[in-house]
Write a structure and sequence with these properties.
Blueprint (H helix, E strand, L loop, with lengths): L1 E7 L4 E10 L2 E7 L14 E2 L4 E4 L1 E6 L1 E2 L2 E2 L4 H12 L3 E9 L3 H17 L3 E7 L21 H11 L3 E6 L6 H10 L3 E4 L6 H10 L1 E4 L15 H8 L4 E5 L7 H10 L4 E4 L11 E5 L2 E6 L2 E4 L12 H11 L4 H6 L3 H6 L17 E4 L5 E6 L2 E2 L2
Parallel strand pairs: 1-4, 1-5, 6-9, 9-10, 10-11, 11-12, 12-13, 13-14, 14-15
Antiparallel strand pairs: 1-2, 2-3, 5-19, 7-8, 16-17, 17-18, 19-20, 20-21
Helix pairs in contact: 2-3, 5-6
């Protein structure tokens, strides 16, 4: 039971609100003193007076934290989740960088097994290997390839229904067919790390893609005569735009532009790598060496940005205090929007009856005070 909170959703803020959990679900909610009628049915009561309460944050693009990466297996995944749990993320889609298809298949199987026993893991995201070489960012160019039917089926089989999204550059041979096949298998396809122009991006969205991987990064920018994939995603109203709001990847005013151009369709993601919650230094992302200085990760060779050291509570604070996004819009970009992007709008992203018992308690400065996931205290 959490009572007397300022309950923030993606649409509004409700004062003096309460919610009651029953196991891993929200059993009831209300306002005022009605919570006292419910208190006999709960073991733990939290007075949230003067603080904000939101649904648990959902990160649909996360590679690592705490010195570990999700491709390191169960121990690495556990480390990654623990760091992000402490910052309000209660559900994560675990992201894999480009690797040989057979290795990716093994990593997908590991994530699938973890997801079966731990509700914090929503499944996997393949960020590669079907990417463009010029816009590859921190992906090994020697491992990039065009999609083919055999590789697509191998990856689908290995994931066993837990592949939540895959990033594809749609301009390459076989890409449109792969987009259609993944979409048919209920995998959310993202356009990203791509040289696609406006028309090609629109064609990919027409073919079934519904996400834009870290908008503005790893793609052509907006030009007044060549609007590119970001404007195509804004135009296609079924598409969610990922934004890495760390103050490095996207300027605050451009973040505001994205929220204005795609209202209700921006998902704040971390794209976090192993250095998140850890020290500056040298790390490995996939097969590439990364140097982290002052919290900014860049490839040793070439200097490309290589993921982030962002957590979602920091993304929230930056959205509100630096970008001028309203609190309920920013919270929506961490909850209802990412839930909808991966097809989980019916049970994640809101503190409503029947939804997952995932919640974050925040102070007036939007710093995390407590976190619950599936009804269990996580931080």
């Amino acid at each position: 039971m959490i009572h007397s909170a300022l309950l923030v959703s993606g649409t509004d803020t409700v004062a003096d609100a309460w919610v009651r959990f029953d196991g891993d679900r929200v059993a009831a909610r209300g306002i005022g003193d009605d919570w006292r009628d419910e208190v006999a049915e709960v073991a733990e009561v939290t007075d949230a007076a003067g603080r904000f309460l939101t649904a648990g944050f959902i990160d649909i693009h996360c590679h690592g934290a705490g010195g570990a990466a999700v491709d390191e297996g169960d121990d690495g995944i556990e480390t990654v989740l623990a760091v992000h749990n402490a910052h309000g993320t209660t559900r994560s889609v675990l992201s894999l960088v480009t690797a040989p298809v057979e290795r990716l298949a093994n990593q997908l199987s590991t994530i699938a097994r973890f997801a079966e026993r731990d509700p914090r893991v929503l499944g996997a995201h393949l960020e590669g290997p079907f990417l463009d070489r010029e816009f590859r960012g921190a992906h090994d160019p020697g491992l990039l390839r065009a999609p083919d039917e055999a590789s697509v089926e191998l990856l689908l089989d290995a994931a066993g229904g837990t592949l939540r999204q895959i990033t594809i550059a749609p301009e390459h041979d076989g890409a449109m067919q792969a987009i259609a096949r993944f979409a048919e298998a209920d995998v959310k396809v993202a356009v990203g790390h791509t040289g696609a122009d406006f028309e090609t991006a629109l064609a990919a969205f027409d073919a079934g893609a519904t996400i834009l991987t870290h908008a503005f990064n790893g793609m052509r920018g907006i030009h007044h005569r060549a609007p590119g994939p970001v404007v195509a995603a804004m135009r296609a109203d079924q598409v969610t735009l990922e934004i890495i709001n760390d103050g490095v990847h996207v300027h605050p005013d451009v973040v505001r532009l994205a929220f204005a151009g795609a209202p209700g369709r921006v998902a704040l993601v971390t794209d976090a790598m192993a250095a998140t919650g850890s020290a500056d230094g040298v790390y490995v992302l996939g097969s590439l060496e990364v140097v982290v200085t002052d919290g900014v990760a860049r490839l040793r060779e070439g200097g490309s940005i290589a993921g982030s050291t962002l957590t979602q509570d920091d993304a929230l604070r930056r959205a509100v205090f630096d970008c001028g996004i309203s609190l309920h819009e920013a919270v929506g970009a961490l909850t209802v929007t990412p839930a909808a992007a991966i097809g989980r709008a019916g049970d994640l992203g809101l503190l409503d009856r029947g939804f997952a018992a995932d919640a974050v308690l925040l102070d007036a400065e939007l710093r995390v005070e407590a976190v619950w996931g599936a009804g269990r205290r996580l931080a």
